[in-house]
Amino acid sequence: MATDQFKDIENGISHNNILEDLEKPFIQNGKMVVSEDSSSEADKENGSIAMVLLSTCVAVCGSFEFGSCVGYSAPTQSAIREDLNLSLAEFSMFGSILTIGAMIGGITSGRIADFVGRKGAMRISAVFCVIGWLAVYFSTGALILDFGRFCTGYGIGIFSYAVPVFIAEIAPKNLRGGLATINQLMIVSGSSVAYLLGTVVSWQTLALTGILPCIVLFVGLFFTPESPRWLANVGREKDFLVALRRLRGKDADITREAAEIEWQAYNVTLRSLPKSRMLDLFDRKYIRSVMIGVGLMVFQQFIGINGISFYASETFAEAGLSSGKTGTVAYAIVQVLLTVVGALLMDKSGRRPLLMVSASGTFIGCFLTGASFYLKGQNLLLEWVPLLAVSGVLIYIAAFSIGMGAVPWVIMSEIFPINVKGAAGSLVVLVNWIGAWAVSFTFNFLMSWSSTGTFFIYAGFCVLTVLFVARLVPETKGKTLEEVQASING
Q1: Is 442 exposed, middle or buried (0-12, 13-18, 19+ CB in 10 A)?
Q2: What residues in the chain have per-residue pLDDT under 70?
Q3: Is residue 115 classed exposed, middle or buried when 0-12, 13-18 and 19+ CB atoms within 10 A define those classes?
Q4: What distance in Å separates the CA atoms of residue 203 and residue 78, rounded to the nearest whole number?
Q5: What's the half-sphere exposure (Cβ side, CA atoms, 13 Å) at 464?
Q6: Contact, 403 vs 355, CB < 8 A?
Q7: Rounded CA gap, 176 and 39, in Å?
Q8: Is 236 helix (H, G, I), strand (E, B) or coil?
C-alpha cells in the first residue's frame, strides 16, 4: 500500500471509506474490479439471509433489555417507595444509579468486545443484567435495590456498544441500514413494554420479566455465529470462514467477501495508526467536532428526557390525572410509533431539519406541561390541567422520538475521523451518561421545588438546542467524511 494512503488515514479519512472500498469486489483474475455493475452480482452472492435475520433477532434482545431497564422505574415508583419505605432521595438514587453503571459499562465495552468477541460481550452483559434483576426482586431495602440497579446499568452499558457493532459486522451491505434501525426500535419497545406491564403487575414480577430477554439472548447466541470480522481480526481464519458461510448460506459464493475481510493491508493500516488520547481531542483540527458531539449529547439529556421518561407515571398523577397508568400507556404507544417515523425520515429529511423540528416539538411539550402545573397551582381552569399535562408529555416524547433520541448518535458517528474516533466516542458516551444521571437524579427534587419551573427549565434548554443546531451542527446526510470534515473546518 502506498505511503500516501497511510497519511490520508492519519489526516482523518473515514473508516467508512475504507469499508466502502472493501464492499466492492477486490481481486478477480489479477485485476482490480471497481464496476458498479458488479453490485447486483454481489447481492446475489449473499445467498440466504436467514441466519443474518436470526442473529439480529437474538442480538436485539439485548436492545430490548436496555429499554426494559430504562423503563422499569416509571411505573414502579409509588409501589417500591411504599413497600420498602424509601425516601424521595433513596428512590432518586435507585432511578439514577442505572446511568452510573451504564457509564462504566459503556466505557469498558469496547475493550471487552475486542477481547472476548461480540457474542462474549453480550453474554457478559446478560449475566450482569440477570444478577441485577434478581437483586431487585429479592431486595428488602435500598442497598440491595441499588446494587441490582447498578448491575443492570453496567449490563446495558455493554449492550449499547456490542449490539449495534455485532449487527453491523454480520449484515450484508444491502441490509445493514434496515437492520441497524431495529436496534433503536427494540430499545423503545422494551421501555414501552415495561411501562405497560408495570401498570398490571407488581414491581417484583416486573423485575422477573426483565430476565426473560437475557435468557433468550443467552440461549440464542449458541445458535448464531460470531462476527466474521472480529474472527478475522484475531487471526481465527478457519472459524471466520465457517461463520461467514453460515451467515451467507451454504450455496452462496463467499470468495469475494472473504477476500475483502481478510485484506491484510486494511488491518495493517488500522494498526499503524497512533493511539489517540483524550488530550488530542482538543487539537485545533478536532475541537469543533468535539464541540458538536459533546454539545448534542448535553442538550439531548438536559432537555429532560431521562427525568420525564423515568417518572412519567408520577408526573401524570401529580398533574391531576385520575390514573397515572392511563398516561403511561399512551406514552408507551406514542414512543414506539414515532421512533419508527423518525427512522423513516432519517435519510430523507436530513439530520439538521429533523433535530430542529424535534427540539421545537419538545419545547412545545415542556411548555404545555409546565403551564398545566402553573394553572393547577393557581387553581385556574382545573378541568384543563390533566389534559394539558398529558398532551404536553405526549407531544414531548413524540418530538423527542422523531429526532433528538437517535440523530445525535448518528451525527457523532459521522463527524470524527478514525484516528480519534475511539477517544472521541468514549468522551461523548461519558458526557451522555453523566447528563443522564444528573437529570434522572435531580428530577424529583426539582419537581418538589417547582413543577412549573422544572418544565420551563427544560423548555429553555430546548430553545438553546435549536440555536445550537442552527449555528454549529452541519448537515451530514449524503456526504462523505471528507465533505463533512470540510464543512466543519470551513
Answers
A1: middle
A2: 1-48, 173-178, 180-181, 254, 260-280, 310-328, 347, 413-414, 417-423, 425, 478-486, 489-490
A3: exposed
A4: 10
A5: 15
A6: yes
A7: 15
A8: coil
Phi/psi at 286 (5° precision) = -115, -15
Q: How far apart are CA 328 and CA 78, in angstroms?
A: 14
427 vs 217, 223, 270, 432, CA distance in Å?
29, 35, 21, 9
The SS3 assignment for 219 reads helix
State pLDDT tens for residues 140-177.
888 999 999 999 999 998 888 788 778 777 877 666 55
Going by C-beta distance under 8 Å and a sequence separation of 6 or more, which residues neighbour residue 348? Answer: none
DSSP string over 5-71: HHHHHHTT--HHHHHHHHTS--EETTEE---TTHHHHHHHHT---HHHHHHHHHHHHHHHHHHHHHH
Helix or strand run (H / E) with residue 118 = helix 88-138
Closest CA to 44 of 238, 261, 256, 263: 256
- Report field, pTM of the whole predicted structure over 0.85: no
User: Which positions ≥6 away from 452 have C-beta within 8 Å?
Assistant: 370, 371, 373, 374, 377
* Cα–Cα distance for residue pair 304/307, rounded to 1 Å: 5
Cell numbers representing residue 194 in the block: 415495561
Type of residue found at 27: I
- What cell numbers appear for 229 in the block? 470480522
DSSP secondary structure of 325-394 = HHHHHHHHHHHHHHHHHHHHHHHHH-HHHHHHHHHHHHHHHHHHHHHHHHHHHTT-SGGGHHHHHHHHHH
Pairwise CA distance, residues 41 & 462, whole Å: 48
Separation CA 339–CA 358 (nearest Å): 12
Q: Residue 390 to residues 55, 79, 149, 306, 450: CA-CA distances in angstroms?
A: 39, 22, 28, 17, 18
Distance from C-alpha of 67 to C-alpha of 65, rounded to nearest angstrom:
5
Single-letter amino acid, residue 300: Q
Dist. CA 48–CA 394, nearest whole Å: 41
- Grid cell in block for residue 383: 378541568
Phi and psi at 239, nearest 5°, equal -65, -35
CA distance 235 to 239: 9
Residues 157, 160, 161, 164: what is their CA dihedral angle, to the nearest 10 degrees?
160
**CA separation for the pair 251, 45 (Å, rounded):** 9
> Rounded distance, CA 397 to CA 303, Å?
11
Residue 316 contacts by C-beta under 8 Å, 6 or more apart in sequence? 324, 326, 327, 328, 386, 389, 390, 393
Give the angle subtended at the CA of 104 by the CAs of 405 and 91, to the nearest 5°.
Answer: 75
